[in-house]
Amino acid sequence: THGHLKDECRCNRGRVERVLRSLTREEIEEMAVNNQVVVTCEFCSRAYTFTPDELHNLDKVLTLDIPDNN
Q1: Mean pLDDT, the chain, as a whole number?
Q2: Which residues make beta-bridge pairs with 48?
Q3: pLDDT of residue 57
Q4: Cα distance between residue 51 and residue 18, in whole Å
Q5: Which of 4, 7, 5, 3 is CA-nearest to residue 43?
Q6: pTM check: above 0.85
Q7: How does residue 59 score in pLDDT terms, banded at 50, 70 and 90?
Q8: Quick one: three-class SS letters along the chain?
Q9: Are 33 and 50 within 8 A, CB to CB?
């Protein structure tokens, strides 16, 4: 007999955190909206929200409260 494939995404917060750790601080700052970074899984559309404190804990010290000069 053959096994059945599960139609289920295997994303989780830990995997998203590993991806964020691989990015530069500048890349993460570019992703920030309203002082948060939201990463959405492209397969299941689940959203993972990271606050500045959570990003700091990932060793990504961000300067998110800088106003635009425009």
Answers
A1: 83
A2: 39
A3: 85
A4: 16
A5: 7
A6: no
A7: confident
A8: CCCCCCCCCCCCHHHHHHHHHHCCHHHHHHHCECCEEEEECCCCCCEEEECHHHHHHCCCCCCCCCCCCC
A9: no
| Residue whose entry in the numeric block shows the structure tokens 């948060």 | 36
Please, is 47 exposed, middle or buried when counting C-beta atoms within 10 Å of its C-beta (0-12, 13-18, 19+)? Answer: exposed
* Average pLDDT of the residues in 18-23: 92
Which residue is associated with the tokens 């599960």?
Answer: 6
The amino acid at 16:
V
Give me the pLDDT at residue 8, please.
84
